[in-house]
Design a protein that fits this description.
Number of helices: 18
Radius of gyration: 24 Å
Structural class: alpha+beta
Largest sheet: 9 strands, antiparallel
Bound molecules: iron/sulfur cluster
Strand order of the largest sheet: 2-1-7-6-8-5-14-13-15
Helix content: 25-40%
Distance between the termini: 37 Å
Length: 536
Amino acid sequence: MKLLYQGVENQFDATQSLVAMKGTGFSPYIQSVHKDVLKGHDFSRAASGPNYTGALAPEGISLSSDDPKLREECGVVAIHGHPDAARQAYLGLYALQHRGQESAGIATADGQRLANIKGMGLVSEIFTDDVLAKLPGTMAIGHTRYSTTGDSALLNAQPIRVDSTKGLIAIAHNGNLVNLGNIRARLERDGAYFQTTSDSEIIVQLIAHSRAGTLVDAIADSLSQVDGAFSIVMMTRDRIFAARDPRGFRPLSIGRIKNPGAPDTIIFASETCAFDLLRAEYIRDVLPGELVMVTEDGVTSRQYSSGVPQSSCIFEHVYFARPDSRIFGRWVQESRDQMGRQLARESGVPADLVVPVPDSGVTAALGYAEESGIRFRLGLIRNHYVGRTFIEPEQRVRDFGVRLKLNPVRNLLEGKRVILIDDSIIRGTTSRKIVRMVRGAGAKEVHLRISCPPTISPCFYGVDTPSKRDLIAANKSIEEIRRYIEADSLAYLSLDGLLKCCAGPEHTGYCTACYTGNYPTQWVDAEDILPAAVAL
Ligand code: SF4
């Protein structure tokens, strides 16, 4: 494991006049008055470079090449007003570990200084007591990430801290911007020095180069110039900011811990499951196009963008988010239960058992079983202790990766007609291995049911998907896929059915681009949506 430490003095000083939002709910539609006076700019100092120390993790062989799942790229958390903000951020990231397992970071501020530590590995591997002790302050932001391999992985780990003309700013970002090329080139022409290749840094550079008179205006100005998906948390030495893109692709919620006789601790997190571990109460979601600021004086909010139709990622409900989280106005558990029920109504088949592909298929399978009246059984057992690295046997056995993670319960499956429930088929190779495994354990029939429509197009909004040429459903009919995966029958949930299962409060709209190819933004990578060059 490598750690990257950044400890700095802050150069940003600001005075501000704020209208603090009182009471429990911060009405998002109240636009506050923000007035910052920037002092102490230091245009001459270049941003400090990374400082690598230590190489702590044992070497091993990555499992990722056999990983069948689409991967979320990030989870973010922010804490304001807690004496041990770093530890709170650590706990929040721990609860969000499912959103990214390859790197994590925490930045803290104590009103004067801003410290930042990032590393490769799981949150609990990086942030030991000794490391947390190096992160003083009552404010923190944190980030956990799935990233690419290579040296750039640590450099692009977040939070990213930029020493800018507006002072020190740390940023942690979930999502993906889609109009980067022109902006980055323009910024570089204007003298921007990029520390990373991460699109998150572009937001900070836009802030640094903004002509707006106040920091909060500069942030709003910058956010309105970028397109794509971003749920971000930012921190200066004395303030926390949180914002969502105008379409609200990725979730971000606000919670608080009540402190008797003292101001509340305010928390932002990608998912509400983080609040439970922190014993915080959920207040509401950060709205699409909203910028929230937290200072000593309280919480203020403004809509920096409005009138854009919401397009929240529906795949968060299908797979990414934890079932114990509430996102986009509804519980993920409830959505998945409904998906299973709807699937049973749309494509029921006579069978003896409903078996989930663990873990993400479990909730939908319970819904399917209840709706169909067919018994639910855990016929596949997942090894929860398979790490990111393992020692490979000398001679690789067939389907080794899947067999390492899953094992069939032979006495349950033998002689049975089995309905397998999973949340997606990406390339098809893993689904085929699982179907073979269940049949190899003695199942008489194997019927695969998928709790979302066929994935036919890649994602450009923060989910790591293969290009179209590698998505089996983009290149084969459902019957061809059935034959390929060797199932007795195959059915997907309809798009209408999925939308019905995830219906949120009024105005909640969803991105369904990976099922339809209709992207809510203009900017997509044409290379990735070309038809398959070679049939699978
Ligand atoms: Fe989510 Fe799919 Fe849209 Fe990406 S393309 S944001 S995975 S619904």
